[in-house]
Amino acid sequence: MDLVAPFRIVRQAWRGLVDVLYPPRCLHCNTRTPTPSIPLCSRCLQRLEQAAPDAVMDHIERLPAAPAALDRARALWRFDKDGALQQVQHALKYRNRPRYGVALGRLMAAGWDARAVALDAIVPIPLHRTRRYERGYNQSTLLARGLSETLDVPVRTDWLRRPIATRSQARLSRAARWSNVEGAFRATRADAVAGRSLLLVDDIITTGSTAVAAAATLKKAGAAQVTLYALAFARD
């Protein structure tokens, strides 16, 4: 018997009631939004700056390990410090808004060129179990699920682990960020990874150190291709 289902129904009903009593509003301009899962109104979404196709890879390649670890890298939007996208990213990551993740992943899928590379699986950047417990969810996994729904490519959360608890990257220098995450990941299913074309998903790319360390682990396990796709790209 599924004991979780009744609680899920009650939770969904409660959220529906809250949305009726307190209609969802844009995080940036406070106007009504068409759905509570999209945190921005259509006008604010249209104003977000698209990331140039080659900008992320050109930036990440400054890391010595990047060329061997990543075959391609791109992001949907350019990060706007103190702007609408930062509000969205902070709400998703730090303010317990997991329902934004899947919807944002669908927007990422809409901006993805499926002809660019054939994909076998989507692998979200994992969190260490302590961080995952504190947050209650992994925002990259939610983005990956939204991508998976649209692209019809399976999500594999069990192929990559983060057994080492690293410091937050937010206030570290470029060199310190790489030292912080180098060797932090482990491939748990080398037999499944081998020969596969993988889409590695993260929420935001700054120096790219975390993504490169994760990609390098997958390549070492035998992945044929690793492509990075992030919600946003911020120059450090």
Structure description:
The protein is α/β, with parallel strands linked by helices. It folds into 2 domains: 47 residues, no CATH class; 186 residues, Rossmann fold (3-Layer(aba) Sandwich). Helix content is 43%, strand content 14%. It has 11 helices and 6 strands. The strands form 2 sheets. Strands 1-6-5-2 form a 4-stranded parallel beta sheet, with helices on both faces. It has a two-stranded antiparallel sheet with strand order 3-4. α11 links the parallel β5 and β6. α6 packs across α8.
Structure summarized in a few sentences:
With 236 residues, the chain is an alpha/beta fold. The protein contains eleven helices and six strands.
What CATH architecture of the largest domain would you give?
A: 3-Layer(aba) Sandwich
- H/E element sequence: HHHHEHHEHHEHEHEHE
Helix and strand content put the structural class at: alpha/beta
Number of domains: 2
State the end-to-end CA separation. 50 Å
Cα radius of gyration in angstroms? 18 Å
Low-confidence stretches: none
Mean pLDDT: 86
Strand order of the largest sheet: 1-6-5-2
State the total count of DSSP E strands: 6
Question: Share of helix among residues?
Answer: 40-55%
Q: Count of helices?
A: 11
Beta fraction: 5-15%
Overall 3D shape: globular
CATH topology value of the largest domain = Rossmann fold
CATH class of the largest domain: Alpha Beta
Biggest beta sheet summary: 4 strands, parallel
